[in-house]
Specification:
Elements (H helix, E strand, L loop, with lengths): L3 E5 L11 E8 L2 H10 L5 E4 L5 E2 L4 E8 L4 E6 L3 E7 L4 H10 L24 E2 L2 E2 L4 E8 L5 E5 H4 L16 E11 L10 H9 L7 H15 L7 E5 L5 E3 H10 L6 E2 L4 E3 L2 H7 L6 E2 L2 E3 L6 E4 L5 H19 L8 E2 L1
Parallel strand pairs: 2-5, 3-5, 4-20
Antiparallel strand pairs: 1-2, 6-7, 7-12, 8-9, 10-11, 10-12, 13-19, 14-16, 15-16, 17-18, 18-19
Helix pairs in contact: 4-5
The structure holds uridine-diphosphate-2(N-acetylglucosaminyl) butyric acid (EPU).
């Protein structure tokens, strides 16, 4: 393993921000990971996966460990289900396509989400009515301090909307090395409840969609709304959709009857942050090289040479204006470093 000093992270974060790691190492196996942790016990460490959910606002004064473990396989199956395991460093979308091509159902709605498999449990990624918690069985993770391996079951991950135990109680304590999903072999539970998916399928006259058709519909929708990080630096949704108590929402809704919302429980309502940001006048705006995407106001973009601090400043302006306009606080979804 080659530890590289003063390493540029520009190609390792989908925002394409220039920031330096004091030291950088890529690990390709659990045993390499163990060795690196043992040999650098007293060093400050920073774990990097696909770099698709972080905004770097400064250089990283630490040993950056890039988890690059590869491999995917079927670990078990019965008549109806298959258990597939992916190593943490596999690209998420390639993994999803691999399952779809085998006609294994469950991940198709999450096609084209950027990032690596190992970071998907951290924020319980989701799209179009599906979250990984719906098919996630367990993950293996290494305890950074002791290098012991631990299995986390679905329940132990304590998944919520873009939340898990890895962002809360045990933040920065474990490195996820592999993940197991339980997928269907037939009688797939397709979820085309999202209007956008139905419209996309109707365009192609598909009445009974298979996994590939759903995946293709999701890919088409995402490509029409969300910028490709290879062409325009971004980190997907920068903010979470705020969840309000119904009572709180009702008084706001009286003032803004056109506000979009989804009831998520008896007592809570989710409001699309993209709508709030658009109404606050930010959609498509550009401030130097930092901006708000023209097709999806939830996504902040780097037109080339924006610094992390510049993007952070834009995000703070948005938060402030949205709060002043609607009295609603929107929280960042990406990790600001
Ligand atoms: N909207 C606007 N203006 C905008 C963007 C959205 O008015 O600029 C409105 C839309 O008209 C729609 C509503 O907001 O009524 C919701 O928009 P959309 O269905 O596009 O989804 P979203 O709430 O903006 C969430 C996820 C996405 C995921 C989509 C589809 C979060 C923070 N984001 O976005 O996830 O792909 O739903 O399920 O929950 C990601 O996390 O990186 C991500 C892209």
């Amino acid at each position: 393993m080659n530890i590289i000093p003063n390493f540029s992270l520009k190609k390792h974060n989908t925002f394409g921000i220039e920031a330096k790691a004091k030291k950088f190492v890529a690990v390709h196996s659990v045993s390499e990971l163990k060795t690196i942790l043992q040999e650098n016990k007293n060093e400050q460490k920073f774990i990097l996966g696909g770099g698709s959910n972080m905004l770097l606002t400064q250089d990283i004064d630490a040993l950056v460990i890039h988890v690059n473990l590869k491999g995917k396989k079927i670990v078990k199956q019965d008549d109806d289900f298959v258990w597939v395991e992916s190593q943490a460093g596999e690209n998420w979308h390639e993994f999803v396509l691999w399952t779809i091509n085998k006609d294994f159902g469950g991940l198709e709605n999450m096609s084209l989400i950027p990032g690596n498999v190992g970071t998907t449990p951290v924020q319980n990624i989701g799209a179009y009515g599906t979250e990984i918690k719906d098919t996630f069985v367990s993950c293996e993770a290494m305890h950074i301090a002791t290098q012991e391996m631990k299995t986390f079951t679905n329940t132990e991950c304590n998944f919520g909307y873009r939340e898990s135990v890895f962002k809360q109680e045990i933040k920065d304590q474990f490195i996820i090395t592999s993940v197991v999903f339980k997928l269907t072999k037939h009688n797939h539970k397709i979820n085309i409840s999202y209007g956008d998916i139905q419209l996309e399928l109707a365009k192609k006259n598909i009445e009974i969609p298979g996994l590939i058709a759903i995946s293709n519909a999701v890919i088409a929708i995402r490509q029409s709304k969300l910028p490709d990080p290879k062409e325009l630096g971004n980190s997907g949704s920068f903010f979470k959709n705020p969840i309000l108590l119904k009572s709180e929402f009702e008084s706001i809704h009286k003032k803004f009857p056109e506000m979009k919302f989804y009831e998520i429980s008896e007592t809570e309502v989710k409001v699309p942050a993209g709508w709030l940001i658009e109404q606050a006048g930010f959609k498509g705006k550009r401030f130097g090289d930092a901006g708000i995407h023209k097709n999806q106001a939830l996504v902040l973009v780097n037109y080339g040479n924006a610094t992390g601090q510049e993007i952070l400043n834009v995000s703070k302006d948005i938060q402030k204006t949205v709060f002043e306009t609607f009295g609603i606080h929107i929280e960042a979804e990406v990790n600001v470093i």
